[in-house]
Amino acid sequence: RPETYLSQFLPGTVFGSLFDAESNGGQLRLRREVLDFLCGNMAAARGGIRLFTGRPEGMLQTRFETARALDAAMHTGEKRIILLSGPAGCGKCYQIEHLCSRRGMDCVFADMDMLDHSPAAIADAAFLSRLYGAYLCLYHLDGRDADGSLAKPPAMMLEAIRRIQVEQDAMFLLSQNAIHPNFGMLCIDVVMEKSTENQRAELFSACLENMPLAPDVDAYELASKFCFEPKQIVDACRQAAGVAAINGVPADAALIHRCCY
Asked: Tens-of-pLDDT digits for all 261 residues of the chain?
C-alpha cells in the first residue's frame, strides 16, 4: 500500500494531504513540495540517491559522439535499458545529465557503491523516479572482489533491476566494464573511450575561451599535463574562473593547476 510505504519517509503525515487538489485523468498526483521532501528523506535514508533537475543552461557538451549515440538510443520508441560503460571519471553521469537537460527531463541517480548494491535501494530509487515521472540512472554497477578489484555486478542487484524494468520507460545502467545482462527487453550498449590529448586540449580551449587569462596559460600544455576526463576539466575551469573573478586578476597557469587538483 502506498501510504504504508510512504509513512517510513513521511512520518506523521496525513496521507490525503500529499496530493494535488486536482487529479489528472482520475489519477492522484503527489504535490511537488511533497515529492521534494520525500526525495530528501529517501536520499538521507539511503545516502546515495539524488534527483537531477534538468538545467540546460551552462552545461557544456564534452563528448559529441557519445551524445549522438545516446540520442539515437532514446529515439527507438520503445521501453529500453541503455548500458553506458567507460573508464572511471570519463563523464558517464555528466552525459546522462546533459541528455536529460536537452530533453527537459528529471532523473533520479542512485550510486550503487554507496548503496552497497542493495536491491531495496534500487526499489526505492525506481519508486521515486516513477513518482517524479523521471528517468532512472543506476551507476557504479561494477561489483568488487575481495582484493578490491572490479568484478561483475552482483547477481542480486541484477535480479532487482529485472523486477523494476517493466515499469521504467527508460533506464540507464553505468559501469566501467560493459555488462551484458539478459533482461528480456531492448538493451542498447554505448561505450565511452578514454579521452585523447587533443580532445582534452579542445575542451580546455572551450572552457577558457571567455575567461581573462595570463600569458602563461596554454590549453595543449594543460591537456598533456592533466590526464583528466571531461567533467573534471569543466569543473576545474569553472572553479578557476570563479577564483580569478573574486581576486580581480586574470587566471594564470598556477591557479588552473591548483583547481585541477
From this structure: 555 666 666 655 555 566 665 555 555 566 667 777 767 766 666 667 887 876 655 555 556 778 888 888 887 666 778 888 888 777 788 888 888 888 888 888 998 888 888 888 888 888 888 887 888 999 988 877 767 677 778 788 888 888 887 777 778 999 888 877 777 667 788 888 777 788 788 888 888 888 888 888 888 888 887 777 676 787 888 888 888 888 888 888 888 888 876
Please answer whether residues 39 and 52 qualify as being in contact, where contact means their C-beta atoms are separated by less than 8 angstroms. Answer: no
Least Cα distance to 105 among 138, 56, 57 occurs for 56
β-sheet bridge partners, residue 190: 84
**Grid coordinates in use for 39?**
526525495
* Cβ neighbours of 233 (radius 10 Å): 25
User: Which of 195, 177, 230, 229 lies closest to 61 in space, CA to CA?
Assistant: 230
Contact 145, 125 (CB under 8 A): no
Decide: 139 and 110 in contact? Cβ < 8 Å.
yes
Amino acid code (one letter) for 206: A
Give the residue from 248, 261, 239 showing the smallest Cα distance to 212.
248
Q: Please, what is the Cα angle at 108 between 102 and 113, to 5 degrees?
A: 125
Decide: 207 and 233 in contact? Cβ < 8 Å: yes
Q: Check: CB of residue 82 under 8 Å from CB of residue 170.
A: yes
* Residue 195 CB-density burial (10 A; 0-12 exposed, 13-18 middle, 19+ buried): buried
